[in-house]
């Protein structure tokens, strides 16, 4: 196994098959706010960021109060009407396999409440030694989540491998001076992922386990 001490996973699009659901919920929130909803490509670009930063990028003409209101609509709708999170095929087995060799952690643009709901939905609470959300640390691509997780676990950022499906994950890792790999199961295309240097681009979590063992 490759000599990392902790694997830091993104959640949406990396562990949870939730990209299409997020796109739909964002579009619904804009309609309820009386705005023309952004297109799918624009929304996929901002998945992984904290909610405020994501909405600011989607609609830079909105003021802070309007962003807060759209965010409130989105969070309320998502919390009360979203179906339970579902992990990608084989993800649960892969996590159990990797847990035998590494500490596992999560760094996500979700809120704490929504991540905790996702962990409960997927029965994965016990698998992760540390989790960080965008309402606890600066949003990706800032390195704060990586630093905070490493601080808690007593490891150096270079001993932490970041795994994500967006350039925001990869840039967070680069800003923390941590190694990273991408998976092509989520929001960003392979062409987008290639714009940020990282160790490998994989087609899913099963390939991650094989890559770590190579």
From TrEMBL:
GO (cellular component) term, any one: cytosol
Coiled-coil regions listed: none
InterPro entries membership: HAD-like_hydrolase_sf, HAD-like_sf, HAD-SF_hydro_IA, HAD_2, HAD_sf, PGP-like_dom2
Domain of life: Bacteria
Cited Gene3D superfamilies: HAD superfamily/HAD-like, Putative phosphatase, domain 2
GO aspect biological process, one term: DNA repair
Name the UniProt record assigns to this protein: Phosphoglycolate phosphatase
Protein's organism: Eikenella longinqua
